[in-house]
Amino acid sequence: MSEYDEGRVLINSIKTEIHKEIIGQNETVDNLLLVLLTGGNVLLEGMPGLGKTRLVQTISRVFSMAFKRIQFTPDLMPADITGTNIMVRDERGSSFKFEAGPIFANVILADEINRATPKTQSALLEAMQEHTVTVGDLTYALPDPFFVIATQNPIEQEGTYPLPEAQLDRFAMKLLVEFPKKEELRSIVTLTEGYGVEPAKPVVNAQQLISIRNMIQQIPIAEAVMDRALDIVMKTHEENKYIREGASPRAAQHIVRCAKARAFMNGRLNVSFEDIDSVILPVMRHRIILSFDAVADGIDEDAVIRTLM
């Protein structure tokens, strides 16, 4: 069996273990894996109680890596995330020692991220992009692999703060967690009541994940297929009554990376137009800023992007 085949077997095992605890949400799980396989960060949005936190906790068990959960609240401070310098006294006198915060793990669950103030939210900016944390004059490297999986409630809910555009741009995808169908709801209730629950087991470690990520990066993409990703980003910067600000270059980067991961998950070593089109919406929806006309006409980001496609 080739290393590519072994990688795909691991991915199938990951999905099997996740769905032991997560009912439905197939598209959300698939897109979440696409991002994790490319080393990106994910933003999950949905009403409270839809299983966003449970999904991330299940993934942390399947990915046998260090996991930390940070509950974002209005009184959370940046040092509560990154860590801080504390004074230590010994026989030689006093000195400062860095006390690492919960951000120093492989998988970070930033739970209800938009309930913290913008100052605290910004503490994640450097970590999400450069995978480093700077405290005082020193910069500390975060472990590899490193992912931030954030959950947020819809912005119109009480006690929420909108994420800054700079921080939104650092999420590879924004996934909308939908309310389950009736039969899925029945299965969820049965599962949570403890009938026949089989917990997810660890499947992949850090080194295996890095190996899969390297294989995905090497998948070739034809120029015409790449142009599909570039063209959709460029269209957001053309004259459009519904778009105030278009997507950044990061959008094109993540479209290509996630399309490669989708091809790999589907057993192909080449990227198709379908791979590109399937990831455009979740990669782009949080990267365009709508105009007042869009708000007045009741047009959302998904509708604008579908029109451009």
Strand content: 15-25%
- The percent range for helix content is 40-55%
Distance between the termini: 39 Å
How many helical stretches?
Answer: 14
- How are helices and strands ordered from N to C? HHEHEEHEEEHHEEEHEHEHHEHHEHH
Backbone shape? globular
Mean pLDDT score: 83
Give Rg in angstroms.
20 Å
Q: How would you sum up the major sheet?
A: 5 strands, parallel
Total count of strands: 13
Structural class by helix and strand composition: alpha/beta
Poorly predicted spans: none
Write out the strand line-up for the largest beta sheet, numbering strands in chain order. 3-6-9-1-10
Q: Would you summarize the structure shown here?
A:
The protein is α/β, with parallel strands linked by helices and 309 residues long.
